[in-house]
Amino acid sequence: MLRYLTKRILLMIPTLLGVAVLTFFMLRVVPGDIVELKLRGDGGTVTQEVIDRERTRLGLDKPLVIQFADWMKGLATFDFGTSMWTGRPVAEEISIRIGLTLQVAVMAAIISVLIALPLGTISALFRDTWIDYVVRVVTIAGLAVPSFWLGMLMIMGLLTYFHWSPPVTYTPFLTDPLANMSQLIWPALAVGYRYSAVVARMVRSSIIEVMKEDYIRTARAKGVFERLVVGRHAMRNALLPAITVVGLEFAFLIGGLVVTEQVFNLNGIGRLFVEAVSRNDFIIVQTLVLLIAVMFTVVNLLVDLLYGVLDPRIRFA
Amino acid sequence: MKALTLLSAAAVLLALPAAAQTETPRRGGVLNWAIAAEPPTYDCHATGTFAVMQRVAPHYSTLMKFEPGNYPNIVGDLAESWTVSPDSLTYTFKLRPNVKFHDGSVLTSADLKATYDRIINPPDGVISNRQSSFVKVASVETPDPQTVVFKMKEVDASMMTNFASPWNCVYSAAKLKQDPNFPAKNVMGTGPFKFVEHVAGSHWRGERFEDYFRKGHPYLDGFRAVTMSSSAMTNALAGRQVDAEFRGFSPTERDRIVRALGKDAKVQESSWLLHMIVTFNTEKKPFDDPRVRRALSLAIDRWGGSASLSKISSLGVPGGLVRPGSEWSASPKEMEQWPGYGRDMAANRAEARRLLKEAGQENLTLTLMDRNIAPYVTAGIFVIDQWRQIGVKAEHQQVELASWYSLQNSGQFEAFIDSFTQFSDDPSNVLYKYASYDRSPVAVHRATDRELDALFDEQARTADKAKRIALVRRFEKRLFEQAYSVPLLWWQRIVVMNDRVQGWTMSPTHMIYQDLGDVWLAEK
């Protein structure tokens, strides 16, 4: 097990290095200059000389290879650099926002699992009946409707019927649970619905597959109650692909809530990402891409480890 | 007619309950307001973005300021009284006594000198965005702790306006001595509110400064500026999560908020010191030919465009280089004499086709670079359609803000939808955009025109207002003949807030009247 873990962690290094190289150099090809935006934006009248001095101060005049080496050196010591827009450490910019994003992702994951498991199972067990059709309509709608659009509908509904909209600033859960939930439950529901649709579809197809297996027929032949057949034999095996989807969707939510965060005015990682991209704040963008890549690889590893827990046939040693 | 109505009033108050106007200001409460964009710095001197100005204005004072409710009249802020020498070469200001910084130290003329020296001659590592406004200042002297004297190298007709600029936040000399870049990361002034916190991407908070020099002010206990996107702002205001937004909404957004807030909505509208421009790259063929540029300007129906675009966007009335309706602007009749402003579009377009034919550009195709947000996209689509009507085909290239600046400053464009804003209508402030490229970093048309430069310099040193206006007209005439950059339409500022917000002053610019010192919250 330890050997497997070490091997997987070591394999993450070239993956992340590849992501770092690609992100760093591709960002430099994108047209745009944060210094011009910062100093010439909204009627700024500074001279070219001032702009050149600022570029030098930010190290943007150095050869790309040197800039990359500087970034790598920083990463090795957990110094992610400073935002070229705000001048704040990147770690601080991320730490302000990561709590909110993680909370929404966790809440959305919980909502999705709570909805998807029963819906997917019922849909599979009552395949091609009106129950299945209803569940399929609900889940396909979840896949078709973008989360941000659902979020907009929610806000419009709240405004129209209750003359109220969710709070616009984040309150940590431990400070005021009610304020926290009244802000975050809506995006979690909007994102969780789509998330649950993806997972429910996967659960449904997995259970349909599993229910055709020999061991299910054997269990039934032995006279095992149908509830146990489904709960103990079918569900446990059908969950494996669903767990992969849950894990990957969770990792996606860390940087993928861009528009939903805009709609609900959430000060999260997705909004930071899109703002940094629009300003060409390379340092923030490349660090966030790397963070998301780390999330994906770690979640993948956790999913693989969970496979072993759920299915004893999978051995890591 | 609608345009004329808008022109005639600097600020049109559409809805202001009579009771609220006569109420006595109430102390207390925290004003929650929305603002888009994160500030790149806290230093007023280093930037031109409202994202900084609207956040830091409540914390600072300036030497002079525009009188609330009486724009563009200038009154003292830190200055108690002032004199200008008959030759306009010496400006002497007497400071108010007992003005305190938020750290308790007393303001003296040394703070004014340190502040203006920093703007005029920024030390290494300090960025001054206002240096060009003070190039004619020879020295800043402090004969005593309450007096500051500006000696000029030559006459500058814009000096009083420059002293009233909201961007000249007065900093503590002691703090600047410790670190010339102190204001870039710290907020400490003599304004009505003390800085409390800035949570990046979330909000900015200030609380009442009890020792503020205007006794009884501010009325509010504090304020909280919440960072949010434009779409979120509309919902937040409609849902009463915030009480105001001070930059401006589009007509559609205004209507949505008014529908949601009903009688609690207060809408204030004004012409805006912000205009949309079509800029040509005069270094690229065929835009180096004035006939081509003039033809493209002639093809645009500004009056017709205004009538339709003002219903769906923030774009308002046609105007010259200075804000229509301001004391410096041309009348609509004068405007109609300029190329591209005549109301007979058939004649304009016939002339445009003739010019293109003469220039050998009958089948002109070009790329129009544009930002990817409203109302820029609206303006771009409109212009392309106008050009189509004289046989010119244009591709609409929409880019992100950073690319938009980068492409225009590096000259990688043929034509683009440009914009320009300033804090006042003063001609030197606004004509600067249209001077020669080697004189003005914001003149992105990349042309050199010494005739325009000479007119710019002459108006800048002409104290007689009527003569100065005549020079502005000559500048505009020359520019419209050459058409390096041509105004398209001026924006219309629409501010929507909850009616409980009182004491805030509407103006044609979103850069002034933001110290919140007179703002109070009515009981609802």
Summarize the structure.
Chain A is mainly α and 317 residues long. Chain A has 13 helices and no strands. Chain B folds into 2 domains: 159 residues, Alpha-Beta Complex (Dipeptide-binding Protein, domain 1), CATH 3.90.76.10; 221 residues, Dipeptide-binding Protein, domain 3.
The CATH homologous superfamily of the largest domain in chain B is called Dipeptide-binding Protein, Domain 3
- Tell me the major beta sheet of chain B: 6 strands, mixed
List how many beta strands of chain A DSSP finds. 0
Supply Rg of chain A. Answer: 24 Å
Please identify the top-level CATH class of the domain at 92-277 in chain A.
Mainly Alpha
Return the CATH architecture of the largest domain in chain B. Answer: Roll
Termini separation of chain B (Å)?
A: 38 Å
Write the layout of secondary structure elements.
The complex is a heterodimer of chains A (317) and B (524).
Chain A: H1 2-29, H2 34-40, H3 48-57, H4 64-76, H5 90-125, H6 130-144, H7 147-162, H8 177-210, H9 214-221, H10 226-256, H11 258-263, H12 269-279, H13 282-310
Helix pairs in contact in A: 1-13, 5-6, 5-8, 5-10, 6-8, 7-8, 8-10, 9-10, 10-12, 10-13, 12-13
Chain B: H1 2-8, E1 11-13, H2 18-22, E2 30-35, H3 50-56, E3 64-66, E4 74-76, E5 79-84, E6 90-95, H4 109-120, E7 137-144, E8 147-152, H5 159-163, H6 173-178, H7 182-185, E9 193-199, E10 203-208, E11 222-227, H8 230-238, E12 244-245, H9 251-261, E13 265-280, H10 290-298, H11 302-312, H12 332-335, H13 345-358, E14 365-371, H14 376-388, E15 393-399, H15 401-410, E16 415-421, H16 427-431, H17 450-460, H18 465-482, E17 485-498, E18 501-502, E19 520-521
Parallel strand pairs in B: 2-11, 2-12, 14-15, 14-16
Antiparallel strand pairs in B: 1-13, 3-4, 5-6, 6-8, 7-8, 9-10, 10-11, 13-16, 13-17, 18-19
Helix pairs in contact in B: 8-9, 10-13, 17-18
